[in-house]
């Protein structure tokens, strides 16, 4: 069952739209909205990154929805949203956008932090990084 505060959950093969996330959480009762955008950086572990691919297990969307439900249940939020890219991404692309809205900023900050951290820990999405030296690595794979 989806908590009524969960407004947007998605895995996308196309560019993520921050405005879509903001629109999904628009309501007059929320005094604070905290948005986090995770982007592809040009380095990791002292090596230059040239690009990456995200792969998702078939259960990833359901698990992402479960994480969003849990955050909504455990925090006094009016809205929760989370979208993650899959496929090939370039340096600077948005890989994940999460946000929460609440009556107060402190609650929104806390809920957004829990949302991104839990997503990274529990949702089966794996990153395949390509490095400038020709090497590669999988991150988060089982």
TrEMBL record:
This is Molybdenum cofactor biosynthesis protein MoaE. Pfam families: MoaE. It comes from the Bacteria. Coiled coil: none annotated. It comes from Nocardioides deserti. SUPFAM superfamilies: Molybdopterin synthase subunit MoaE. CDD domains: MoaE. Gene3D superfamilies: Molybdopterin biosynthesis MoaE subunit.
């Amino acid at each position: 069952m989806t908590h009524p505060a969960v407004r947007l959950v998605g895995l996308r093969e196309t560019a993520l739209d921050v405005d879509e996330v903001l629109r999904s959480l628009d309501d007059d009762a929320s005094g604070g909205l905290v948005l986090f955008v995770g982007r592809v950086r040009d380095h990791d572990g002292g090596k230059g990154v040239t690009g990456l691919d995200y792969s998702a297990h078939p259960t990833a969307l359901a698990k992402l929805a479960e994480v969003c439900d849990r955050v909504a249940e455990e925090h006094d939020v009016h809205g929760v949203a989370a979208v993650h890219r899959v496929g090939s991404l370039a340096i600077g692309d948005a890989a994940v956008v999460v946000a929460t809205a609440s009556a107060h900023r402190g609650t929104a900050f806390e809920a957004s932090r829990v949302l991104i951290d839990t997503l990274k820990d529990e949702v089966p999405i794996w990153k395949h990084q390509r490095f400038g030296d020709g090497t590669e690595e999988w991150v988060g794979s089982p």
